């Protein structure tokens, strides 16, 4: 039987804030003799807001009240009451996520409606979300290739690398269209980020707030920014300037890139038709930067395609619920449920084919993707696992997970492990043994998840044999 639900997505970025409503049709796609599996069978975007400049009180503080008014006004424009919204997501990204009151703004908005996924996306997680929103994962899978998506916004360029549909690498550079703000008529500098000022200094270009700057100097700065895009993609030699602008670790570049795509606001300046129009259309350097990147001739090295989404790649069109039941071989140390809104870190098939020592390091690295600007965040580890596993291999796998998830284990949160194959009971018990039963452990199986998903785990059913699972998929509006 079909059911229709309304979902909202809200993205508060460095430059822009936007909202999208979707109507999702969900249906039990399992047979009458199987465990129910609720899936989205249709998604219709029913309202897209205007794209607003993110309101700020200062360089370090978001105007939370103004943001809320924007969102409430669009609810009214869409003719949707908060009580009608079943689910959704509020994502705060880019430089905005570093603002002093970002968490308070999120808490304020999460009460608007429904059962929200609420997350401050760190730069690596934002790269994954934007890459998926742009469809890079699907393009990579359908073309069996390595695809790099560069999401160039107002404050950052978030880069995600997908191979055969799986995320294999991410990075973030402090390059964006609003890192220099200019008065459209006078060319007077109204704002410049500290890193871009240092980059200009390295070039011998003096730029100060209140100073009138020439278009030629702006072009020289954005041309250097574009050069850094080539450096991170491996087209030219890496310089100290790239190290300056990196927000996280650099790309590994131990793979051959087949395709690249651009999303984010500046992408519209790369693909758009108005590149020859008024350069300061937005009172910033976005169009200059778009031109500089377009002039790189990256198509001499890579296949470039335009994604399904550009400026709306990160806005979440729907936080959809896919309800399922865990397998019957689960482990949990005590009834600590419900657990809600835990982001999922899923290992790729290639990851799981590594030796256990190498796999431990991979897990540690990927756990760091979910860091929130020097803050730790709970993460659920998802693995495919092995159907028939020996006791010796089981112990090695348990030790590998404990080593790789050391940062999570050090937190006052449960260790959550999700396995596709039915080995959760034995694996969970082995992990508990190695941790001397001093840590809450939840290990569940027969659940299929993806990177970018969030998981809720409800209270046990059937005398503790199964737990209800809600997978919240970030379904993007396009």
Automatic annotation (TrEMBL):
Source superkingdom: Bacteria
One MF annotation (Gene Ontology) recorded for this entry: lyase activity
Database matches in PANTHER family: CELL DIVISION PROTEIN FTSA-RELATED (PTHR32432), ETHANOLAMINE AMMONIA-LYASE REACTIVASE EUTA (PTHR32432:SF13)
Pfam families: EutA
Residue ranges crossing the lipid bilayer per the database entry: none
Source organism per UniProt: Petrocella atlantisensis
Coiled-coil portions: none
Name of protein: Ethanolamine ammonia-lyase reactivating factor EutA
């Amino acid at each position: 039987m079909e059911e229709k639900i309304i979902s909202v997505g809200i993205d508060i970025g460095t430059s822009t804030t936007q909202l999208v409503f979707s109507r999702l049709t969900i249906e039990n796609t399992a047979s009458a003799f199987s465990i129910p599996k609720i899936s989205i069978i249709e998604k219709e975007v029913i309202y897209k807001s205007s794209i607003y400049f993110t309101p700020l009180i200062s360089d370090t503080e978001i105007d939370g009240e103004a943001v809320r008014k924007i969102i409430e006004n669009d609810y009214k424009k869409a003719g949707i009451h908060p009580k009608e919204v079943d689910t959704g997501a509020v994502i705060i990204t880019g430089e905005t996520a570093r603002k002093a009151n970002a968490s308070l703004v999120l808490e304020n908005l999460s009460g608007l409606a429904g059962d929200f996924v609420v997350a401050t996306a760190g730069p690596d997680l934002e790269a994954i979300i934007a890459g998926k929103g742009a469809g890079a994962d699907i393009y990579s899978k359908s073309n069996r290739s390595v695809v790099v998506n560069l999401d160039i916004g107002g404050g950052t360029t978030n880069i995600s690398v997908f191979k055969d549909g799986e995320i294999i690498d991410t990075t973030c550079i402090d390059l964006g269209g609003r890192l220099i703000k200019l008065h459209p008529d006078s060319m007077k500098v109204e704002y410049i980020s500290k890193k871009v000022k240092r980059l200009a200094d390295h070039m011998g270009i003096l730029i100060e707030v209140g100073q009138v700057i020439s278009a030629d100097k702006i072009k020289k700065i954005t041309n250097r920014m574009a050069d850094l895009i080539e450096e991170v993609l491996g087209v030219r030699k890496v310089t100290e300037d790239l190290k300056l602008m990196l927000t996280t670790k650099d790309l590994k570049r131990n793979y051959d890139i087949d395709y690249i795509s651009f999303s984010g606001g500046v992408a519209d300046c790369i693909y758009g038709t108005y590149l020859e129009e008024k350069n300061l259309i937005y009172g910033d350097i976005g169009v200059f930067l778009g031109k500089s990147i377009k002039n790189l001739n990256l198509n001499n090295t890579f296949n470039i395609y335009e994604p399904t989404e550009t400026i709306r790649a990160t806005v979440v069109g729907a936080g959809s619920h896919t309800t399922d039941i865990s397998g019957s071989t689960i482990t949990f140390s005590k009834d600590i449920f419900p657990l809600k809104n835990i982001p999922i870190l899923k290992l790729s098939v290639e990851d799981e084919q590594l030796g256990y020592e190498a796999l431990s390091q991979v897990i540690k690295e990927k756990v760091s993707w979910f860091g929130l600007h020097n803050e730790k965040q709970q993460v659920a580890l998802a693995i495919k696992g092995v159907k028939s596993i020996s006791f010796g291999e089981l112990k090695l796998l348990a030790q590998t997970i404990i080593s790789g998830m050391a940062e999570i284990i050090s937190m006052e949160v449960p260790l959550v492990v999700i396995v596709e194959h039915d080995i959760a009971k034995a694996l969970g018990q082995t992990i508990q043994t190695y941790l001397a039963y001093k840590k809450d452990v939840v290990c569940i199986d027969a659940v299929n998840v993806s990177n970018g998903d969030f998981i809720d785990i409800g209270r046990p059913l059937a005398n503790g044999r199964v737990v209800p699972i809600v997978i919240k998929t970030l379904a993007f509006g396009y």
